[in-house]
Amino acid sequence: MKKAIKILIPVACFLVIVGIIGGYVLYQFTYHPSKWLVPGDDAVADAPFEDVLKGLDMMDNTWETAVPQTAIHDLITAHFASPLPEGKTEKKAIVIGYDGCRVDLFQLLATSKKSAVNTLLADGGHAVFSYAGGVNYPAENIQATSTAPGWCSMLTGVLSDVHHITDNNQVKEVEPKTLLISLVEEGIVDDSAFYVSWDGHFSHKRATYYAEKQYVKSQGLDATYRRAFFDPGTKLNIISDLKKKDCTDFIFSTLEYTDHEGHNSGFTPTNPKYVSAFRNAEATGVDIIDTIKARSTYDTEDWLILITTDHGGQGGGHGGPSIEERITFIVSNKDILSNTK
Ligand SMILES: [Zn+2]
Prior knowledge:
The protein is α/β, with parallel strands linked by helices. The chain has a single domain, classed as Alkaline Phosphatase, subunit A (3-Layer(aba) Sandwich), CATH 3.40.720. Helices cover 40% and strands 14% of the residues.
């Protein structure tokens, strides 16, 4: 017995050490974007935020006339409600969310080699300023510029006074229903899917859509809630769905590259690591769009593709009332302003 313990203890210690080192290496080289991206040698010089926004000539509006982030809900609703264009037989929509992506990163689009935003704009798409916080800057915000309230407002079309999500780690009641449920229940789409890596969406008991996920299960709705551990896994989940002959009709996804790196080293385009995170989100977006375009039935499908963010950031965080945290963006392959209220 003593002999067995003498052997087992060192073996157990060895396995624990290997596990810790292996976990650390995996974390550094897979999740942590700045560790495996080309260093962002194209970070920009510091400039006043409002001046940078004025110079973004790809935008259809000004930050003063920004649309609310709830426009995402309205754009998707309008897309599915509008008649099928000539030659099209099916409607589809996807939201590619870049969590915590400051809009002044768009000054780097000119030097982007692989940009989903540029891809949509080159295909005749549009970009507009939007805002988080419930009301536009400089009016005092009525909603935190935080992750859960932001995405929830986009998914429900209402603010926290109605959906009651004022921060992360709050479980939303089933009502008001998100588009992931309402579009399926109303028979507007056959199915929906929510692809993420952040565990705060639906992966623990205090996650925003924890109750909603239970509801989906209890009702047998064709809505998939799938969390990967890292953004590359989210990309794989989305792409493997899009490669199916009859892919999911409505896909909502978030990528954490920019938010994670912003918290880690600073939400500013003067930070090379934050720029690298943006490049990574953008490259993922291109791979997703390319997969959509490669679908054998693409020519007969009417796709709405949206890229947006839940909030900006300042310093190492967000949640507050600053213009850097509140002015966001929506990019689409279709006209946005004429389709928003
Ligand atoms: Zn966020």
